[in-house]
Amino acid sequence: MSVAFRRESDEDHKEPKFEIPMVPGPNLVTARGKALIDARVAELEGAAAQAEGDAREAIQRDLRYWHTRQTTAEIVPVPSPDSIAIGSRVRFRMAGRERCIDIVGHDEADPAADRIAFQAPLAAAMLGAEAGELIDFNGRAEAIEILSVEPTPE
């Protein structure tokens, strides 16, 4: 039989496991975001202690990602109610529809719960704006009207 058809072990033919990619740029987080990262690390450390084999390897991979996020986290100060920043709750009108979002760090983002990462296009367009301003967005002039800005409640 040809060597090409022989298989020494399954280990030789496993797909490589790559590290979870990091979001480029600074790891800016709210106090709530830092607490969520800390909780995730604690949860994964507990799971890793009980897991074995491939399951443990997968958990260790996740744990490396979250340890890095934990050590690089920079907690932003509570923003002023005057202009939009990370940690702001923004009420705005776009395309005739009123919405309210919280601008947060990447690990805290949850679009379904209206928590948007600060580098997301919508949030990035709003950063630095104040209540009453009209902002260009998505190629449209004055597409967003900022109705109110306040720090996100903890």
Short description:
One of its GO terms (molecular function) is translation elongation factor activity. By secondary structure, the protein is α/β, with parallel strands linked by helices. Helix 1 packs antiparallel against helix 2.
Write up this protein.
- With about 150 residues, this protein is an alpha/beta fold.
- It folds into two domains: about 25-75, no CATH class; about 90-150, Transcription elongation factor, GreA/GreB, C-terminal domain (Chitinase A, domain 3).
- About 30% of the residues lie in helices and about 25% in strands.
- It has three helices and seven strands, in the order βααββββαββ.
- The chain has helices at about 30-50, 55-70, 120-125; strands at about 25-30, 75, 90-95, 95-105, 115, 135, 140-150.
- The strands form two sheets. Strands 5-4-3-7-6 form a five-stranded mixed β-sheet.
- A hairpin with a 2-residue loop joins strand 3 and strand 4.
- Helix 1 (about 30-50) packs antiparallel against helix 2.
- It starts with about 25 loop residues before the first strand and ends with a strand.
- The model has no long low-confidence stretch (mean pLDDT about 90).
